[in-house]
Amino acid sequence: MNTYTTKGTCSRQIIFDVTPDHKLINVKFMGGCSGNLQAVSRLVNGMDIDDVIKTLKGIKCQSDTSCGDQLALALIDYKAKNGIE
Known about the structure:
Strand content: 15-25%
Number of strands: 3
Order of helices and strands: EEEHHH
Strand order of the largest sheet: 1-2-3
Distance between the termini: 20 Å
Structural class: alpha+beta
Oligomer: single chain
Shape: globular
Helix content: 40-55%
């Protein structure tokens, strides 16, 4: 289980797992718009982390970021910490 503290969004934290073949699973947003974030979590479940990053990075909401963008940043951080290119 990985935990990422978000910045600039209504959600406070993202919890997620990554499989050995780099698929995103078990995504949970703490706080934020419950219905929308449950939908995002289901839609990205099983996706390759690079595809999630490409799809969500740069999406903006009420600030210069969004919960989706924060998920992309969480995965970029995960890759850096785990030496994944």
